[in-house]
Specification:
The longest helix has 14 residues. It contains 6 helices and 2 strands, in the order αααβαβαα. 32% of the residues lie in helices and 6% in strands. The protein is mainly alpha-helical.
Length: 161
């Protein structure tokens, strides 16, 4: 889970942190790929489209689903949270979900995750400014998610794109 869609033309396409093929991966996504490589040894792909993760079972959700051009976080508290909070509440009922919450907007959803059977992993936002201050790199989010799923007999996520 992240904050909101990328706010430059042609970047956002409905999956959190993802960009369509042919669009240069933004710095946040490059940091995610760097962490994936450090954690799991998976080399960064030549593109930034995360559709493969979605097909493997990852819900790539932002707390807000729209944004004003050039203004990050501009649609916070405009109503999207009603929908995204409900999605979190429904997933919380499963008791075997992994929630990876990056950034303060995403981490603000922790109170909605009440089922102790779920795994909650948190880190700072992967944007260069936040990630380089500490709290993102070294989080081992990908291997921790797969270890949790494996322990429960659930198919692991294929993090290769």
């Amino acid at each position: 889970m992240g904050q909101d869609p990328y706010h430059q033309p042609g970047q956002a396409h409905g999956l959190c942190f993802s960009v369509k093929r042919g669009v240069p991966p933004p710095p946040s996504l490059l940091n995610i790929f760097g962490e994936l490589q450090a954690d799991c040894g998976i080399s960064p792909p030549a593109h930034g489209e995360l559709t493969g993760w979605a097909k493997s079972g990852v819900l790539l959700l932002n707390t807000a689903l729209t944004v004003r051009h050039g203004v990050a976080n501009s649609h916070k508290n405009q109503g999207w949270e009603i929908l995204t909070d409900k999605i979190i509440e429904i997933l919380n009922r499963r008791g075997d979900a992994v929630f990876i919450l990056w950034g303060n907007n995403a981490k603000s959803k922790i109170p909605l995750i009440t089922n102790s059977g779920n795994l909650v992993l948190t880190g700072t936002h992967p944007s260069p400014l936040s990630a380089n201050r500490g709290g993102f790199f070294g989080g081992k989010y990908f291997s921790a998610a797969n270890a949790f799923l494996r322990e429960r007999g659930i198919n692991e996520i294929n993090w290769k794109l």
